[in-house]
Specification:
The protein is an all-alpha fold. The chain contains 35 helices and four strands.
């Protein structure tokens, strides 16, 4: 169903809006075959896709509402006595007319409803989404078979990402709802009471919203209760087998290796991975159907597949977050063998856990519980006794060693991005074949920038003071972050500029090479296909038709990606577990499906593909760190980088005032460099006429002129910037950097001319 333009995301009749007990007043219902408790694997895939999109939208709305509530002045609308009574009597007690200030409150009817209407609507939608998410996660926990991330990153990643998204959304909302001075609770209570006064009824969904607010006064406890009793998230099953690979990929020496994320040579196998085991079993092999063939005899398509990075490396930042959030949501999973060791290893690499944008929590503190609580989490007494000490030790180790390791990772990524950019500029047609490497490198870049944003300037009070004072602040130098963003912007710009070439090359690969591989795999599955569920067999038979049409002009492949996702969940379900164990071709089919999904995105969704990989919303949401560290450093040392930062900020839809401030400071720096250059040139001409040039004029020009030329070139080459609307006050607009530079230049020359006339 297409969403009507101009409507809120939850205002349309989503095919996934359903309730456990259908309410006649609500029209949001799934088809009967997709009702709660009756998901099959294909419908789970579709539901997951819809819920993740809705959840991301809710996270953005929650962040915006949280910022607005913190900045909102309640006093003009809610007198102190009224505000106190609304919170004290929440949710049962009604605000009575005899309360001091009630008349003033009642006269603010439409103003109160207008001020808090969006917040109340967000709570209604979040409460509904919560129920949907819990039901789907519970269904997936029951229905999925072995959670093998290497075989099926789409299925396992989607399952864990939804759980992580669920936790982040309700931790973010809980930060506004928790505490006796909760502004979120006050806004909801004021909206309800005013709705009763003005509209003579409670607002729709008030019972659900009031219960939701009370339950999430302690958000993490409520989340743990939900996931323990209803979902039973299988985080240990999914991630503990990845522990050796995670340890190897987190080693800075691995990322420094020339072959890792290189456009020219295949990456080394991660220890403990299935690819490493296959390569060891077949000399010179890579685990593919033709793994025994020498590299010189392989086709270009096989070599391109061999260049793809390991699935874990592409999702390294996400896997770390899945581990911490997963064990926070279901701490009972720590009883599984290897779970405590995995958690401690991940916590040694962070001491701040990002939630969303500029909001974060301290993960070690959340795992510090009383002994009887830890005993419920971990069955073995010896492990339960050791657990608090391991958490304390991992916090100190993270504070001591993680900043240096992540600084090394950022430096290595700068080198990788530079090589990728050079290779892509030399051979734009290779972008499609190196797309997995490009996306993986951009995703790692995003993870490192997010780590820097959450950890720069953070120092948990549990860390001894002498350790905090001894921390080397240069490890958080924003110069490497600035360089990462420059390369990410240039690669994003190149992909979008060469989108027709990339789409043509990807379409040819899908319709010829990948189609041939798929048909070869299917030819080896006659008996297994007969044992597959009927829907999986149908989806397999339709895939070649989709691939054959991929090279058509203006091909739209959303249906292909959805069918791939459906098929992945069908093959990952418990009934297919035995088939996967005995059919090698079926095990190779799952990674192939992931490859098809990524390639198809390069054909009809190149902008969404690179924008998601370059999503740097945590940096832009932390306006102090962005403006005072990254942007200020770029203005001083390399002003041309400010254009790349602006481009990424506009692509991320940041607030218009932030963009205006960036443009204002860039305009000032442009004028400053121009003034220095013109003054130095004037001094040089005066010196040639016999006058004495002021000291330092030549050095000033030598410093300013390269920066001015680089900034002018960056503005000249930059694509148009789409400026987001800022509410009703400011409409969306398009900024042409070249014209903007011309206007600044004209203004400066006019001012210089007036100054000369005055002289």
């Amino acid at each position: 169903a297409a969403e009507p333009p101009g409507r809120p995301r939850f205002g349309w009749r989503s095919p996934l809006s359903y309730r456990a007990k259908p309410d006649p007043a609500r029209s949001h219902l799934l088809p009967p075959s997709m009702s709660i408790g009756h998901f099959d694997a294909s419908h789970s895939a579709e539901a997951l896709s819809i819920l993740e999109d809705e959840g991301q939208s809710l996270l953005g709305r929650a962040h915006k509402a949280r910022r607005e509530l913190v900045e909102f002045a309640f006093a003009p609308l809610l007198p102190d006595k009224v505000a106190r009574k609304l919170v004290e009597r929440f949710p049962e007690g009604a605000l009575r007319e005899g309360v001091v200030g009630f008349d003033s409150f009642a006269r603010s009817g439409e103003a109160v409803l207008g001020a808090f209407g969006d917040w109340y609507s967000l709570l209604v939608h979040a409460a509904e989404w919560r129920e949907l998410s819990l039901q789907l996660l519970a269904s997936l926990s029951r229905e999925l078979g072995a959670l093998n991330f290497e075989l099926s990153p789409l299925a396992v990643g989607g399952y864990l990402e939804l759980a992580c998204q669920h936790a982040r959304l309700f931790l973010l909302l809980g930060s506004v709802l928790a505490g006796p001075d909760s502004k979120g609770r006050l806004a909801a209570a004021a909206y309800c009471r005013m709705h009763q006064l003005v509209r003579l009824s409670e607002p729709p969904g008030w019972l659900d919203v009031s219960r939701f607010i009370v339950e999430f006064e302690r958000p993490l406890s409520r989340l743990q209760a939900d996931f323990t009793s209803r979902v039973r998230l299988r985080v240990a099953d999914a991630l503990v087998p990845l522990s050796p690979q995670l340890a190897a990929a987190s080693d800075p020496a691995y990322l420094r290796s020339e072959a890792v994320l290189s456009p020219l040579c295949p990456p080394p196998k991660l220890p403990g991975s299935a690819a490493a085991a296959a390569a060891a079993a077949v000399p010179g092999g890579s685990g593919s159907l033709r793994s025994g063939r020498p590299s010189e005899e392989r086709s270009s398509e096989e070599r391109d597949v061999a260049h793809e990075p390991p699935p874990l490396l592409a999702h390294l930042g996400r896997v770390r977050l899945w581990a911490v959030y997963g064990f926070l949501l279901c701490p009972e999973e720590l009883s599984q063998p290897g779970a405590v060791e995995l958690l401690v290893a991940v916590l040694r690499g962070m001491y701040v856990l990002p939630v969303y944008a500029d909001y974060s929590i301290l993960p070690h503190t959340e795992f510090e519980a009383e002994a009887k609580v830890v005993a419920r989490w971990i069955a073995k007494k010896e492990d339960a006794k050791r657990f608090p000490g391991l958490i304390r030790e991992s916090r100190l180790a993270a504070f001591r060693h993680a900043p240096a390791a992540r600084a090394s990772a950022r430096a290595s990524l700068c080198t990788k991005l530079s090589l990728l950019l050079s290779h892509a500029l030399d051979s734009p047609t290779s972008l499609a074949s190196r797309l997995p490497t490009l996306v993986a490198t951009l995703q790692l870049t995003r993870a490192e920038v997010e780590w820097w944003v959450s950890h720069a300037g953070a120092a948990p009070k549990e860390v001894p003071l002498r350790e905090r004072e001894a921390l080397d602040r240069s490890l958080f130098d924003p110069a490497t972050v600035q360089a990462l963003l420059r390369y990410a912007c240039l690669l994003r710009r190149l992909v979008l500029r060469e989108a027709p070439v990339v789409a043509s090359s990807a379409g040819t690969r899908l319709s010829v090479a990948r189609l041939h591989v798929l048909e070869e795999l299917l030819s080896q599955l006659p008996r297994e296909k007969a044992a597959l569920p009927p829907r999986a067999e149908l989806l397999l038979s339709e895939l070649p038709v989709h691939l054959a049409a991929a090279a058509a002009p203006d091909a739209q492949l959303q249906g292909l990606r959805l069918n791939v996702l459906r098929l992945v969940y069908e093959l990952s379900a418990a009934p297919c577990a035995a088939l996967l164990r005995r059919a090698e071709a079926l095990r190779q089919l799952l990674p192939e499906l992931h490859r098809l999904s990524l390639l198809s995105s390069a054909i009809d969704q190149p902008q969404r593909l690179v924008d998601e990989a370059c999503d740097l919303s945590p940096l832009f949401a932390s306006e102090a760190k962005f403006m005072q560290a990254v942007y200020a450093g770029a203005l001083s040392a390399r002003p041309s980088d400010c254009v790349a930062l602006l481009e990424l900020a506009c692509a991320g839809g940041v607030r218009r005032p932030l963009v205006d401030e960036c443009l204002g400071r860039l305009s000032g720096r442009f004028s400053e460099l121009l003034s220095q250059t013109l003054a130095a040139l004037s001094s040089r001409r005066s010196g040639s006429l016999g006058s004495v040039a002021p000291p330092g004029a030549e050095a000033s020009m030598q410093a300013a002129l390269p920066k001015l030329c680089a900034l002018a070139a960056a503005l000249d080459q930059s694509p148009p910037l789409e400026l987001a609307a800022d509410g009703a006050a400011t409409a969306a607009a398009r900024l042409l950097p070249r014209e903007w530079m011309g206007e600044r230049l004209e203004e400066h020359l006019q001012q210089a001319g007036r100054g000369m006339l005055l002289l």
